[in-house]
Design goal:
The complex is a heterodimer of chains A (587) and B (161). With 587 residues, chain A is mainly alpha-helical. In chain A, 50% of the residues lie in helices and 8% in strands. Chain A has a three-stranded antiparallel sheet with strand order 1-7-6. A two-stranded antiparallel sheet of chain A has the order 2-3. Chain B has a single domain, classed as Roll (Ubiquitin Conjugating Enzyme), CATH 3.10.110. In chain B, β1 and β2 form a beta hairpin. In chain B, 29% of the residues are buried. Classes of the chains: A mainly alpha (587), B alpha+beta (161). Chain A: GO terms for molecular function: ubiquitin protein ligase activity; zinc ion binding.
């Protein structure tokens, strides 16, 4: 077997796949793809997609059919061939109009042969009676049909032939004349005339799916039950897309959205998780013994500040199991539970460290990151549920108790949306951290600094939205300090947003600002600090990373007189400033 | 060996009966060279004698093909196997299963028993070595419970032999 068409198809798929996974690089060929002619660019955008600077379009089933129909019409017009033939050609060339045009005008004969479009149509013989090539019965020629090759088959046999092919799967889109010596294509025009409405419907379903599944620019939304597809402008930057069903996913790898971490890291991480952690999963993410009374505690809230049930009532940090009261002091005024190095140095892993061998060491390191990844994942799930209950019931209740119009309570929803998004980003930064090479000390330090800042900001925000809000929900009537609460939560929301934007930007530029600040010899690259861009933030962060890398100590070294820590958001500001660069709070 | 699976098969549809009767008549009028149909009253199972073509490795050797027809023949392919002993051939397993694309994926309802027979004879004739397929033992072990070759996912390695 292995006819030439099959080989050709296989190669097509291969080359498409190659392009998919090269990411942002190597998009040159894609540009060529668009150059066929201005009138025939492959981007059949509809008007609705122009509303914002989005690099993707959500397509409903109706949109898909419309785009598909327009593409078929376009090819049919340009090549002066029937619509069914244009459809066969487009499917063969993965719905790329420019490829159809290129191949057709380069070697029409070859293309025709490959897809079974005969140059000259052979009419059915006009003999009075013809013999069907399948059942061998004789029928008057009016009851026979044939593809463009003229091989006659009767209606019942066509129905059976098409039905068998349709129930075999999407291969029916490449149907050929039943005669084994003949490769003439059987297009949708014949399907529509010759088969039952049920098979017609199935065929048209396969044709719709093909437009998405064989098209290198369109993919189905991977959310269960979702029927939207997403058309992506390849080479246009971030792959994170948000479907109309509200599911966010990475268009490139179809995993959930994972910006700023790249697809390869995510794939490695997911593979590692499936291999190492099936049972570790639930136990680690959901239960721990209270560090004081040792009763097992299941984490059922989002933030990391845990209070054991009475009579113990011990308050501790879920991540490091240290007393919560020491957070912020013992850790040098900063949240430091994100750092593996810190935990190790503090002696938290000391005992095991000495006893266990190298292999165990790596498992432990993995556990550290996995635990934080999984915990943020479940925190996010919890936050999503909280957001939902806020939208559906609690906001209304709060509006009643605090005598506030719901429109004035939007800041709460915004806070929760921010929490959900931040938990997602934070989760993936732990996969990033796991794969960040150990020997890149400066990068690690810079990364952990940014991650720690972001995480501690998020913890404050999450705690405020979860626990402090509860007081106002439970109150009998309006409370005087509700406006203060509003200011605080809204402030935390915007501060946290800034921290995360900072973190995302730094990871997306590969933490390269560290390299330039630590290595004076490469000062020609100094201009790259623009990439962090706004205000003077980037310069200052570089200074921090540089100053601490010299000591090699994992603890933060901002209390060195050159910096002051903001009371509200803990951001480390240069001594020369009087207002916080992050939240604009006065010193 | 395969009688159990054949016995459990559904009876031929009316379309299948009509078509097979026509094929039988055509066969009697115009039998393919080198084949002899052993007449029985069972339209659903044909047993056909094959004689190796002169000047080939199988010259004058006699083998028997068993052809079982499914309910929806010819929309579905017939099951074709060699009865014991099967010829030694790189595409024919010792249990009689034949690795030939037109019997599976490439079947077309416009093919006939006669055209299948001719393809099989041509496959025999072009063989240059009398040997079993390299994976014969493994394959035959996997088919022990009378599994039909139509349930195998065939990989058609080679279109020369």
């Amino acid at each position: 077997m292995g006819s030439e068409e099959d080989m050709h198809d296989a190669n097509d798929v291969q080359s498409v796949e190659d392009d998919f996974y090269t990411g942002e690089t190597g998009m040159g060929s894609e540009d060529d793809d668009y150059n066929f002619g201005d009138n025939y660019s492959d981007d059949s955008e509809d008007v609705t997609s122009h509303r914002q600077q989005q690099n993707y379009t959500i397509l409903s089933e109706a949109d898909i059919r419309q785009h598909q129909g327009e593409n078929i019409n376009r090819v049919s017009t340009v090549l002066s061939i029937p619509r069914y033939a244009a459809c066969i050609l487009l499917r063969h060339y993965n719905w790329s109009i420019s490829r159809v045009h290129d191949e057709w005008f380069a070697d029409e004969e070859h293309v025709r042969k490959a897809v079974g479009l005969l140059e000259r149509t052979v009419e059915l013989s006009n003999a009075r009676e013809l013999t069907c090539g399948i059942c061998f019965e004789n029928y008057p020629c009016g009851r026979m049909s044939s593809a463009s090759c003229g091989h006659p088959f009767c209606g019942a046999c066509w129905r059976g032939y098409i039905s068998t092919s349709v129930s075999d799967g999407p291969g029916c889109l490449m149907l050929r004349c039943p005669d084994p010596s003949c490769g003439a294509a059987v297009g949708q025009n014949m399907i529509d005339v010759l088969t039952t409405s049920e098979d017609k419907e199935k065929y048209s379903r396969y044709l719709l799916r093909s437009y998405v599944e064989d098209n290198r620019k369109i993919k189905w939304c991977p959310a269960p039950g979702c029927e939207f597809a997403v058309e992506f402008v390849i080479g246009s930057g971030s792959y994170d897309v948000c479907c109309s069903c509200s599911y966010s996913f990475c268009w490139n790898c179809a995993e959930e959205a994972h910006r700023p971490v790249d697809c390869a890291t995510v794939a490695k991480w997911i593979l590692k998780n499936s291999a190492e952690s099936e049972n570790m999963n639930w136990i680690l993410a959901n239960s721990k013994p209270c560090p004081k009374c040792k009763r097992p505690i299941e984490k059922n809230q989002g933030c990391m500040h845990i209070t054991c049930t009475p009579p113990c009532k011990f308050e501790f940090c879920w991540l490091c199991l240290g007393p919560w009261s020491e957070h912020g002091e013992r850790t040098g005024g900063f949240y430091a539970c994100n750092r593996y190095e810190a935990a190790k140095q503090e002696g938290a892993y000391d005992e095991s460290e000495r006893r266990r061998e190298m292999a165990k060491n790596s498992l432990e390191r993995y556990t550290h990151y996995y635990e934080r990844w999984a915990t943020n994942q479940s925190s996010r799930q919890k936050a999503l549920a909280d957001l939902h209950s806020m939208q559906t019931e609690k906001l209304e209740k709060l509006s009643d108790t605090q005598s506030q119009p719901e429109s004035q309570l939007k800041f709460i929803i915004e806070a929760w949306l921010q929490i959900v998004e931040c938990r997602r980003v934070l989760k993936w930064t732990y996969a990033y951290g796991f794969y960040l090479p150990e020997h890149e000390h400066a990068k690690r330090q810079f990364f952990e600094y940014l991650q720690g800042e972001a995480e501690s900001g998020l913890e404050r925000l999450h705690q405020c939205a979860e626990k402090e809000l509860q007081v106002y929900l439970d109150a009998e009537g309006p409370m005087a300090d509700f406006n203060d609460f509003r200011t605080k939560l809204a402030g935390l929301t915007s501060v946290t947003k800034n921290y995360f934007e900072n973190l995302v930007r730094a990871l997306e530029t590969g933490l390269k600002d560290v390299g330039t600040s630590n290595n004076q010899a490469t000062c020609s690259k100094g201009s790259s600090s623009k990439s962090l861009g706004n205000k003077s933030k980037s310069g200052k962060i570089k200074a921090v990373a540089g100053s601490s890398s010299g000591s090699g100590a994992p603890s933060r070294s901002f209390d060195d007189g050159n910096l002051w820590s903001c009371d509200r958001c803990t951001y480390a500001n240069p001594r020369s400033t009087t207002t916080c660069q992050m939240c604009e709070h006065h010193k | 060996m395969t009688s159990s699976s054949a016995a459990s098969r559904k009876a031929l549809s009316k379309i299948a009966c009509n078509r097979l009767q026509k094929e039988l008549v055509e066969w009697q009028v115009n039998p393919p060279a080198g084949f002899k149909h052993k007449v029985t009253d069972n339209l659903q199972r044909w047993v056909i004698e094959v004689i190796g073509a002169p000047g080939t490795l199988y010259a004058n050797e006699k083998y028997q093909l068993q052809v079982d027809f499914p309910e929806h023949y010819p929309m579905e392919a017939p099951q074709v196997i060699f009865l014991h002993p099967a010829p030694l051939h790189p595409h024919i397993y010792s249990n009689g299963h034949i690795c030939l694309d037109i019997l599976y994926d490439s079947w077309s309802p416009a093919m006939t028993v006669s055209s299948v027979c001719i393809s099989i004879l041509s496959m025999l004739s072009s063989s240059t070595a009398k040997q079993r397929p390299p994976d014969n033992d493994r394959y035959v072990r996997n088919c022990r419970n009378g599994r039909s070759p139509k349930e195998t996912r065939w990989w058609f390695h080679d279109d020369k032999v």
